[in-house]
Every structure is written in structure tokens, then in C-alpha cells.
Amino acid sequence: MKYEFIKEQEKAYSIKLLCKMMQVSRSAYYRWYSKGHHPKPQDTMLEAKLKALFGDSKNTYGSRRLAKELTAQGFPVGRYKVRRIMEKLRLTVRYPKRFKQTTDSRHGFELAPNLLNRQFKVTAPNQAWTTDISYVWTLEGWMYIAVVMDLYSRQIIGWAVDVHMRTSLSSKALRMAFWRKKPSPGLLHHSDRGSQYASYEYRELLKLMNMQQSMSRKGNCWDNSPTERFFRSIKYESLNYHRFATKACAKLAVIDYLAFYNGRRLHSTLGYKTPLAFEQEFYQRIA
């Protein structure tokens, strides 16, 4: 009787909640369900596709993203059904871990005002870029990662990985972004107050590229939250789950994740589209 009630109500409520209400375990319910209900071929295909997509996402897609991806690939399904299948298949999503900041704002360099002022929604590519630095541990020592993000598509358009976090690391990432995108003069460049971005060398590079410099307020990570969010993603979706024997292995992992992030990972801010697809749609509209 309890199991039948759960089966009747599963379209309205999650299996987890119903099992808790009826004081039965989910595993017991699924055993009962499998004995009396032979799965339909389409359900078997859906489960197989869901499991494959979950693996492709590096075990990071939850029910919402999986439902969007499945529907886009010809398997129309709701979020709650996806959640039930995930519970049945025991697919557990990776969750983020805390990590320390790398910003060193204790310097005597000139600081720029916060021109961006958390205006993260822009109307076209190459209007505003954000940048930051993070790190990854290997058995050979620390490696540092600098990235440049286009706020319009949240795409990582420039990056650099090295054994240090000097100004040249940030400059290398910026040069890559500049030569790839060739932005018009006046682009807004936003960063934290780190010494790399406030240095004379970096400010001269921004002048040469005709960019406006903007910096976060002191100790306020929310002023650069899109880039912070990217590093949170790369940490808990990839880097934190590996023990890198060499720095070369860590660099390859970063490159692999960047390809996944830009070209395959659905971004909630972009309406569950990838950064590359979102940018391509813009240029198709104005063509």
C-alpha cells in the first residue's frame, strides 16, 4: 500500500520526500517497483542517455541541466523525472570546496576605480572583460592559472598557466585574448586589486590596447563574481578531484576543462547554452 501511494504521487513530489513521508527506504521502493514494472524501451534509452551525459559533464550536471540537455537532444523530460532517475541510478553531483584567494593588494601601485560596478550583463561581445588568477597543486609544486573572460558570453578567451603568479602571467592571458578577439578601443577591463593588475607593466599594456581599467573595491570578491564563479567551477568540477604528479599533467587538465567549459558546458546565466553557442547566436543575429 505504501509503495503504491508513492507510485501514484511521484509525478507531483520527489521519491526522496515520499519515501521519507511513508517511512520506507528508496532502495526498498525501487526493488518493489522493478519487480512489478518492467521498464519500457524508451525509459531504458533515457536512463542510458542520462547516465552518459552525466559522465560527460564530469559528474557535475544536476537535474536542471540534465533535463535541458536531454530535451535539446530529443529526449523531452522534466527536471523532477530526471531527479528520480538520478536517485535510482545513484548519480551523485560533485559539490564545491572552499579555496583560498590569491589576491595580494598590499602594494603601493595606483588603483583604478570600480567602473564596472557589478554591471555583469552586457549587450555584445568585447564590451567588458574580467580577469583573475587561481592555483592548482601538483606533486612538483604549485601552478598558477590566469584567465580572461568575456562577460557577454562568459567565454574564457585568454588564459595562461605557469609556476609563478607574476605580472607576466596575467599579461600573457590578456595578450592571448587581445589577439584572438581584436576588440575595439574603449573595452572595459575589470580585475581585483592584485599587484599584477596594478603594476606599471600591466597598466601600460592596457593603455597600448586602448582599454579602460576597472578594479574591484577592497576585499570585495562580489565585484568580480563571474570570474570567481568560473574558478569555483573548474576547482570542484575538475582540479580538486585529481592528484597531479607533474605540472604538465595539471596544465593539460586545465586545457581540457577550458574546452569543456567553453564548448560543452551549459551555463545557467546564458539560458542553459554554452558560451561558444551564445556568442555564435549573437553574430548570426547581426549578420
UniProtKB/TrEMBL annotation:
GO terms for biological process, alphabetical: DNA integration
Leader sequence residues: none
GO MF annotation list: nucleic acid binding
Residue intervals of the Integrase catalytic domain: 121-282
Pfam families with a match to the protein in the record: HTH_21, rve, rve_2
Cited NCBIfam families: transpos_IS3
Protein's UniProt name: Transposase
Naturally occurring in which organism (per UniProt): Legionella quinlivanii
